[in-house]
Amino acid sequence: MKRTILLLLASAALLVGTAVSCKSNEKCCNKEGAIEVAVPERPAGQESALGMTADPIEVVRIGFIGLGDRGTGAVPRYCHIPGVEIKALCDVEPDRVERSQQILAYYNLPAADSYSGAEGWKEVCEREDIDLIYICTDWINHTPIALYAMEHNKHVAIEVPAATTLDEIWSLIDTSERTRKHCMMLENCVYDFFEMTALKMAQEGMFGEIIHAEGAYQHNLDPYWNGYWNNWRLDFNHKNRGDVYPTHGIGPICQALNIHRGDRMKTLVSMDTGTFNGPKHVKAQTGEECTDFQNADQTCTLIRTENGKTMLIEHDVMTPRPYSRMYQLVGTDGYAGKYPVGQICLRSEGAQKVAYDDLQGEVVYMGGELDALMAGHRSDILTPELETLAKQVGGHGGMDFIMDYRLIYCLQNGLPLDMDVYDLAEWCCLGELSRISLENGNMPVAIPDFTRGDWNKVNGFKYAFAE
């Protein structure tokens, strides 16, 4: 009852614009009753990274740091991209480095320099003959390595999530802005074929104005928990509440909603279930009872944007529900959804009367009809040649290869990257902000403007191309 009363009071304060008390002395509430976190001022002499470019790099020299499943999967993909040299391979475990050396040998490419141990990554970042550091370590080491690399004059590409706290996010933003080095998160799902085509259709106005979108990471990790080095992923879920892995779900829909390109995420509210399955995994691995597991079986976050759009993001890695990233775009005149069944619905203009035995008021495309419709709205970056090569090389069906190909293309041509450091910030911030909402009785939390006032200076998301 006490919790219900607190929630009602918080909701009432939100409606009347009255500030309410917050649990943390480091946070306050704005006039709308949403918890606010500090937004540091941009340091003097530091410039925005919106549309940032760097000098073209004819041959991109790469150092890979972290050669577990993701890193070992990346190395062979880069063997198929022209204009790259793999200069260094690094992992704490020497056998993983050797495994990647064997991949280079298989493709008749020169061996890279090998680095291992706890500090090997620093030596890679300090080299003067590397342009790009590609980071595929455990989550807690993503940001420290990226910061060190940018300080040593390297562009960085970081696996998801690139950052796990707001402090890490602001550090990445400030370092990228100051050093003028690209800091891109390796969010592959924005390059999946359905998402790219639906984005193109949205940009062409087929769905009207996009007013709501949904994304998720729903993936039963039961078969995988024991495969993470030193059990790092279960340990992170053990210690951290909130949506700790939001980027696959939120990335594609942020592009469709033009986030920090004419709109911005303004406020979120999160709710979660209890922790039912997590303690069982800990007990299975340690033999001891776990009473302090933090991450819920299901976490839901609702977001409202500055322009009055809404987003729903979900996280569930604990239950045996089918894999889904939800991916839905809801427009004033149409809808696109990928899970559980791919379909596009467009408003029917010919409906003259209500037919109670047929409740559909829209034209639905599924199966072969859906394939034919989407074939006529190919993404601007998806040439037939690139699509064929991506499907041959693979990496989550080809989207990983497209992600890598675009990164190298933009670096070679001195173009802005498809995903900038502000995308990284917005897609990662749900980790800490959802926790704040959950720990304060599901109160609304204001989402920082990571662009520091520049969120509406770019008109819509678009890819860059060489002239």
General description of the model:
Helices cover 34% and strands 18% of the residues. It has 467 residues and is of the alpha/beta class. The protein folds into three domains: 2-31, no CATH class; 60-186, Rossmann fold (3-Layer(aba) Sandwich), CATH 3.40.50; 190-375, Dihydrodipicolinate Reductase, domain 2. Strands 16-15-14-13-9-12-11-10-17 form a nine-stranded mixed β-sheet. Strands 5-4-3-6-7-8 form a six-stranded parallel β-sheet, sandwiched between helices. Strand 14 and strand 15 (343-347) form a beta hairpin. It starts with a helix and ends in a 21-residue tail after the last strand. 44% of the residues are buried.
Give descriptors for this structure:
467 residues, alpha/beta, Rossmann fold, Dihydrodipicolinate Reductase, domain 2, 3 domains, nine-stranded mixed β-sheet, six-stranded parallel β-sheet, 15 helices, disordered N terminus
CATH architecture of the largest domain: 2-Layer Sandwich
Output the structural class.
alpha/beta
Distance between the amino and carboxyl termini: 64 Å
Give me the CATH superfamily of the largest domain: Dihydrodipicolinate Reductase, domain 2
- Helix count, per DSSP? 15
Mean of all residue-level pLDDT scores: 93
Give the strand order, joined by hyphens, for the main sheet: 16-15-14-13-9-12-11-10-17
Instruction: Report on the biggest sheet.
Output: 9 strands, mixed
> How many separate structural domains?
3
- Output the CATH topology of the largest domain: Dihydrodipicolinate Reductase, domain 2
Uncertain runs are: 1-25, 350-357
